Amino acid sequence: MTSLVIRQKAALRAARRWSSAAALLEPGSPQAVGSVARSYCARMEQDRGLLFRQLFESVSSTYTYLLADKESKEAVLIDPVLETVERDVKLIEELGLTLKVAVNTHCHADHITGTGLLKKRVFGVKSAISRHSGAAADLLFSEGDRIPFGRYSLVVRETPGHTDGCVTLVTSDQSMAFTGDALLIRGCGRTDFQQGCAQRLYDSVHQKIFTLPGHCLIYPAHDYKGQTVSTVDEEKKFNPRLTKSLDEFVDIMNNLNLPRPAKIDVAVPANLVCGLHDV
Ligand SMILES: N[C@@H](CCC(=O)N[C@@H](CSS)C(=O)NCC(=O)O)C(=O)O
Ligand SMILES: [Fe+2]
């Protein structure tokens, strides 16, 4: 009994030490990245301050991501899908969030984005996409731009190759990267339509994603096998395409022989106007 009380007191003291250390770290500050202990604190800070939801649309196997600052309630939504906008709006309302930006990682070929409908459903939301996508949106971003939401922000890394306007959105403490179709879990986006280029994609992933910290979590736009998350280290070790040499990668990509996405002829024109095709 006595030893149980001692153990409980020790655990309480340790928890207090952790929480006061975490409280000293501004989310996304340079101090929040670095040693293992510091990065562990940064993750604790995130748990306390950053709301995160991974949502799934099963027809196109698309992941939509909701991130919000728990304090200010400001939120961003990454890669919403037209068919699941009502689900997303309901969740945003239930959680009392203010959606600031609905952002696309690229001009999708397989589904219509939800950004256009979201702009109609939620007052004040701005759509955003890369200026190299050729698509219309309220905000056109490029390399190094930040998408702020409360105390947090997403930093834009241009990762072309699947399309010209593909970006990876990285949290400012580099603990999470939303890679769109540039890097999928144990795979990558195809390069046989839109402005696809295998060499460009290989360079993008190696220079802009594999240079992130090894523990950085990888959240892709799609998964077709039930996988939900990976890390930079895991993909550097186990990605069956991107661990190969450039020549081998190009050969793999030129021989995927995938069928065209069923909705490509409808989705691409719609997504070039951020889903506002029927207005
Ligand atoms: N069957 C789906 C389309 C599947 C597909 O082509 N996925 C793309 C990402 S969406 S542009 C892709 O890059 N896949 C890479 C891979 O290796 O599977 C449909 O008809 O919509
Ligand atoms: Fe795509």
Explained architecture:
- The chain is of the alpha/beta class.
- It has one domain (27-271): Metallo-beta-lactamase, Chain A, CATH 3.60.15.
- Helix content is 32%, strand content 24%.
- The chain has eight helices and 14 strands.
- It has helices at 2-24, 36-49, 85-94, 115-121, 198-209, 232-238, 246-254, 264-271; strands at 50-57, 62-69, 74-78, 98-103, 126-130, 139-141, 146-149, 152-158, 167-171, 176-180, 183-184, 187-188, 217-220, 230-231.
- β9 and β10 (176-180) form a beta hairpin.
- It is globular and about 50 Å long.
- The chain starts with a helix and ends in an 8-residue tail after the last helix.
- The model is unreliable at 1-38 (pLDDT under 50).
- The protein binds ligand L3IBWBLD and fe (ii) ion.
- Ligand L3IBWBLD binds at residues 60, 108-110, 181, 187, 189-190, 222, 258, 261-263.
Question: Which features characterize this protein?
Answer:
8 helices, 279 residues, binds ligand L3IBWBLD, disordered N terminus, six-stranded mixed sheet, globular, single chain
Describe the sheet with the most strands.
6 strands, mixed
CATH fold assignment: Metallo-beta-lactamase, Chain A
Computed Rg: 20 Å
Architecture, according to CATH? 4-Layer Sandwich
- The total strand number stands at 14
Strand order of the largest sheet: 1-2-3-4-5-6
First CA to last CA: what distance?
70 Å
Provide the CATH top-level class. Answer: Alpha Beta
Work out the strand percent: 15-25%
Q: Which structural class matches the secondary elements?
A: alpha/beta
Order of helices and strands: HHEEEHEHEEEEEEEEHEEHHH
- Number of helices, counting only DSSP H or I runs of 4 residues or more: 8
Mean pLDDT rating: 88
- What do we call the CATH homologous superfamily? Ribonuclease Z/Hydroxyacylglutathione hydrolase-like
Amount of helix: 25-40%
GO molecular function, one term: sulfur dioxygenase activity
Family: Belongs to the metallo-beta-lactamase superfamily. Glyoxalase II family.
Organism: Denticeps clupeoides (denticle herring)
Subcellular location: Mitochondrion
